[in-house]
Write a structure and sequence with these properties.
2 domains, Rossmann fold, 329 residues
């Protein structure tokens, strides 16, 4: 039985474009997210991985309604109450949902106001949603800081007194302040040193169990995704080209783009590097036209069918693959 906390259907986000007028021609816009559909089950970590420009951050911002989608639906189901379509919900309803759907940003320094103390940054949502002030606010903020591995007395400091890893922990504490059910983590560890990345990922896993959280984890680093995610969607030019469990994806990738991403991961053994690099796709401009498969200009296996006809989603080896020849290559 499905227990989906998030159901996204045919989500599309287009920037620019116009219908044209009497003296002007219509202009095609840039489609950053193209009819994406997926579900996230309660309690899981759903990863979205892809190169820069693939549309993954835009997708995350649409889920939060930081951006208004051009089309599609985003159904969020809290533990209590009716489901809400975030894509079309009015702002008053969104304010209530935003307590349950929170975001952790990529750059911990840019996302924290340097003029505010930690107690104000982390406690801002508590002041608005629960009216906490004074001792009650300080007590709650202290508890949140302890939950992310920081000392309660740090609440009176300013963000510039902390390291990058500590600032990201402050961002996580801020996200947890409203008792969310779903957290969208957008490149949450990409700006951190490798050793700090591992500590932050372990922290997120501990918090997920402690607070019964569901994560949508956006990243470009496959090693990070493999460490923390239960399922992974590989995104290329606005589309999900492969969706599978983490074990299935890394053990038996089906889409040529997924294989190209895995082949790009550094390997210590030079013999493995030569073998894995033999089938690597060459990068091209992300804006290159493709009437059929978006990956066809880069795919070493592309045929005329790939270039002319949009591929269907095929189920192969436990994965959903957007490829004409999935399972045959």
């Amino acid at each position: 039985m499905s227990d989906a906390i998030l159901e996204v259907k045919d989500l599309t986000m287009q920037f620019g474009g116009s219908k044209g007028g009497f003296l002007s021609k219509p202009k095609a816009g840039f489609v950053a997210v193209d009819a994406v559909s997926f579900e996230v089950q309660r309690g899981e970590t759903f990863g979205i991985v892809g190169e820069s420009g693939s549309g993954k951050t835009t997708l995350g911002r649409c889920i939060l309604r930081v951006l208004d989608p051009s089309a599609g639906s985003i159904r969020f189901q809290a533990r209590t109450g009716a489901a809400v379509d975030l894509a079309s919900a009015p702002i008053d309803q969104l304010r209530q949902v935003w307590r349950k759907v929170r975001m952790v940003f990529q750059d911990p320094q840019a996302s924290l106001n340097p003029r505010l103390r930690v107690i104000d940054i982390v406690g801002q949502a508590l002041q608005k949603s629960e009216g906490l002030r004074g001792k009650a606010l300080a007590e709650r903020v202290g508890q949140l800081l302890e939950s992310v591995g920081l000392r309660p007395e740090f609440m009176h400091r300013y963000p510039n007194a902390f390291s990058g890893g500590q600032r990201q922990r402050l961002g996580i504490a801020r996200a947890l302040s409203t008792h969310p059910e779903l957290v969208v983590a957008d490149e949450a560890v990409s700006a951190l040193d490798v050793s700090i990345q591992a500590q932050t990922l372990n922290l997120l896993q501990d918090l997920q169990e402690q607070f019964d959280l569901t994560f949508v984890f956006i990243a470009h680093d496959l090693a990070v995704v493999e460490h923390i995610c239960d399922r992974v969607a590989v995104m290329y030019r606005g589309q999900f080209v492969e969706v599978a469990t983490t074990d299935t994806l890394f053990r038996a990738p089906q889409h040529p783009y997924t294989r190209a991403l895995l082949q790009a991961v550094p390997v210590a053994d030079p013999r493995q590097r030569r073998r894995r690099g033999a089938d690597r796709a060459e990068p091209v401009d992300v804006g290159a036209p493709a009437r059929g498969c978006r990956f066809s200009p880069r795919c070493p296996h592309a045929t005329e069918l790939c270039r002319e006809t949009r591929p269907p989603v095929r189920k192969v080896g436990g994965a959903d693959v957007l490829c004409h020849y999935a399972g045959e290559i």
